[in-house]
Amino acid sequence: MDTSANVYFFIVPVVVFGPLFLWIFYTFGIKELIKIPEEMRRKRRRDVQAAADFQAERLRKRGTEAVGLVRGPNTTAFGFFMQGLTFLWFATLIGFFASSPPYLYADPGAGLIKLSLSHAGQRRLSCSKKSAAELAKLEPNMRARQSCPRERWPVYIELELDNHKLFARSAKPAGLSRDGPSSFYQKFSVATGKHRLTLRLRDTDTSGFGFVTTRDLEILSGQVIAVQFNAAKGGFRVSVPTLNEEQS
Amino acid sequence: MTLIMLNAIQYPIRRLFEGLEVGFDGPFGPVWNPLRQLGTLAFFFFWVAAVSGIYVFIFFDTSVSGAYPSIEQLTHQQWFAGGIMRSLHRYSSDAMVICMGLHGLREFSRDRYRGARWFTWFTGIPLIWLLLISGISGYWLVWDELAQYVAINSMEWLDWLGIFGHSVAENFLTRGSLDDRFFSLLVFMHIFAPLFLLFAMWIHILRVNRAKSNPPRGLAIGSFIMLLALSIAYPAVSHPPADLGRVPSTLYPDWFFMALYPLFDAAGAGTLWALVMGGSLLLCVLPWLPPLRRNPAPEVYLEQCNGCTRCFEDCPYSAITMQPRTDGRPFEQEAVVNSDLCTACGICVGACPMSTPFRREGELQTGIDLPSLSLNTLYKKINQGIELTKNTPPEGQARLLLIGCDHGTDVNGFAGSGVGTVSLPCIGMLPPSFLDYLLSGDRMDGVMLTGCAQCDCHHRLGIEWTEQRLAGMRDPYLRKRVPRNRLHVHWAAANQGSALGHQLKTFQNRLQDLAATDSREAK
Question: Which of A106, A93, A209, A177 lies closest to B250 in space, CA to CA?
């Protein structure tokens, strides 16, 4: 992708629409909530001017005021030195915790199987034809000849590694009418080495499995094995990435 | 019971802050003390991050494959500009997290989040979220191993809510599953989250009268030099490039933004959601746990009010507005108090030109008065102080009145031995005419004023207005006839009692010397 084109692609919307969006948000949403009376605005402007005048006058009168022990900033050499030390401490704090201490996220001697799929189960009921009497009861614009209930069966999945069941779960279809896809997302840390992965999926109310896949794998350290599903392309798809250092 | 628990939590934090603040007053001076400028410093660091971020963005390639190389090129081949800008961007964001956290903790410990201040506290909570979203989304864009870890975990965390139809984390499942379009979405997030943050910061200070959003110039320069030096000495670098086919093993997270991620790994998304939502909710309702028992708001006495607007000008909380006259008297406006915004600090009483002890017809009355400590009661207290000091001083010792506030050092502990004391809700409540009353009529040898620490008035503007009134630069002025050498001001924090005692003693001795000199001159 061309870099310069990208820059303008983002800058233009942000510059043009960003303020516009904020203006709309402010004018139609927030303005009433946080309305500042005009007299208060005027007062604030006067306050700012008064504060500036006061600072100027104070500087002019410095040392001649009869009252107060008003201390200004410490601008002595020792003061600057101590300020430097304080800033050094603060910088060390920021610098250290910005990238330390290290965090061991994954076991170096393990790989990862990621199961991520979304699949719609079969419909619970098949379509049925409506009788003439039934159709007559409906409004003219509602007279569809078939009735097709939308609800789907939950999807059930099993994942076995070396004949050991790691995962077995049923997911309800999404949506208020339970007519959407059932989704799964799960991660499994597995030891490196040779393994047999078996995957099964059921999307109806039958007892068997509509889709079964078995795959022999050699899992390497840090490798991410992705398990996806696409019924139209034959079911499960197991992606085994090549790792440059260990595999060619 | 809740109040006792609250105090038990607040007290040690407050003492810790007070100790540190006094310690920092030495090398920095109160004006530059960073602990007294945490909010303004957070604003400053935001601007540093914004400017450096714009620079980095100019050279940033927004495609999945181009992001990492463009950042690497910026960091190494343009280290003198782009590399420093990248580091400034990172470290200023981290500094903002620190300042924001300390700022919230400090205001909590000082009980400056309840009552009329709830709005500022409440609108500060979204800032935490927006700052974290801004920072975390920025780390995604580098598209290194850390970005991969943070992005996947963030998406898995969001997926737990089940509101996205299908898994968002699926976009990071395999090599090639992340496309430029989705990556662009992440870029947009990192642009719009800080814009919303800025907008929320503006709302946060909107109801604060004379809100400061810029730190003192000296402190800003020092802070910027610190960030610059850190950026040069310890530049921000990337992890190895992201690879969705490999799990990153050892990471070097920015703990200021990513402290909760290991918790996600250990306890899961549900626990983390419960923690952050529960924590946020708790912070949101904190101002009402329990609600602040406020003294009643001041009342306006129209027969004494000529609509001069001084109370309106001086109120630190914008609780007073000027509205058309309702009593038929020949003035344009009258002051009206909004009790929801009022903290009963009494600064308006100190600002009212009618608050004078000299004009009396029966009971002392003023244009705006506190029901909990009326001007007449203050007048009586001051006269009691005068009477008490008449009997207590040893022979030849100067008599003085120490006037302080309820939030600084407790002045009542200094009563006796020629010293009378009066404590006010805020030192700004004291009308300058009372100093005239005390000193010009020889009712006292001297008056010492104290309050909160300098630049740290509990009611924000009490110290500033008092200084300006005494210096003759803000209405109502201290009259010129008042002998300034018999008036002493020493701002002291609650934990600076010994320093205040020392100042008091010194001032008393000075008054005695003055008296001796006057006596010699009279002879």
Answer: A106
Rounded to a whole number of angstroms, the distance from the CA of B313 to the nearest CA of chain A is 7
Q: Is residue B360 part of a domain?
A: no
End-to-end CA distance of chain A: give it in Å, rounded: 29
pLDDT tens digits, A109-168: 899 999 999 999 999 998 899 999 999 999 989 988 888 889 999 999 999 999 999 999
Query: Which of B32, B166, B167, B182 is the best mutation test for A, with the most CBs of A within 10 A?
Result: B166
Q: Are B140 and B242 in contact (CB under 8 A)?
A: no
pLDDT at B393 (0 to 100): 61
Instruction: Specify the residue for token string 């109160």.
Output: B30
**Residues B157, B263: contact at Cβ < 8 Å?**
no
Which CATH number do you get for residue B179?
1.20.810.10
Is pLDDT above 60 for A7? no
B350: Cα separation from own chain's centroid: 23
Domain assignment present for residue B253? The answer is no
Give, in degrees to the nearest 5, the angle at Cα B283 between B278 and B287: 135
Report the residue of chain A nearest B164, measured CA to CA: A174
Contacts with A118 (C-beta within 8 Å, 6 or more apart), sequence order: A181, A182, A183, A184, A229, B166, B167, B170
For B211-228, what is the mean pLDDT?
A: 95
More confident: A3 or A159: A159
> A171 is in which domain, residue-wise?
110-125+152-239
- Alpha carbon distance B211, B472 (integer Å): 24
Q: Which long-range contacts (CB under 8 A, 24 or more apart) does A60-65 make?
A: A61/B471, A65/B471, A65/B484
Based on the structure, what is the number of domains in chain A? 1
User: Are the Cβ atoms of A71 and B188 closer than 8 angstroms?
Assistant: no
| Domain match, B283 and B303 both | no
Kindly report the pTM of this predicted structure. Answer: 0.86
Q: Provide the β-strand partners of residue A194.
A: A218
Kindly determine whether residue A98 and residue B188, on different chains, have CB atoms separated by under 8 Å. Answer: no
Q: Pick the residue from chain A with its C-alpha nearest to B174.
A: A226
**In the beta sheet, which residues pair with residue A193?**
A219
Minimum Cα–Cα distance from B239: chain A residue:
A99
- B416 band by pLDDT with thresholds 50, 70 and 90: confident
Rounded distance, CA B110 to CA B120, Å? 14
Beta carbons of A83 and B32 less than 8 Å apart? yes
Give the residue numbers spanning the domain of B312.
294-354+366-372
Instruction: Kindly state whether residues B435 and B386 are assigned to the same domain.
Output: yes
Which of B237, B268, B288 is a domain's end point?
A: B288
- Choose from B21, B142, B210, B247 for mutation: most chain A CBs within 10 A: B247
In a domain, B361, yes or no: no
ipTM for the assembly? 0.91
Closest Cα in chain B, distance from residue A236 (Å):
15
- Number of structural domains chain B divides into: 3
Domain presence at residue A160: yes
- Cα–Cα distance for residue pair A190/B493, rounded to 1 Å: 60
Domain match, B15 and B151 both: yes
CB A113 within 8 A of CB A167: no
CB contact under 8 A, A103 and B488: no
Measuring CA to CA, which residue among B220, B369, B387, B210 is closest to residue B296? B369
Of B169, B454, B484, the CB nearest to A116: B169
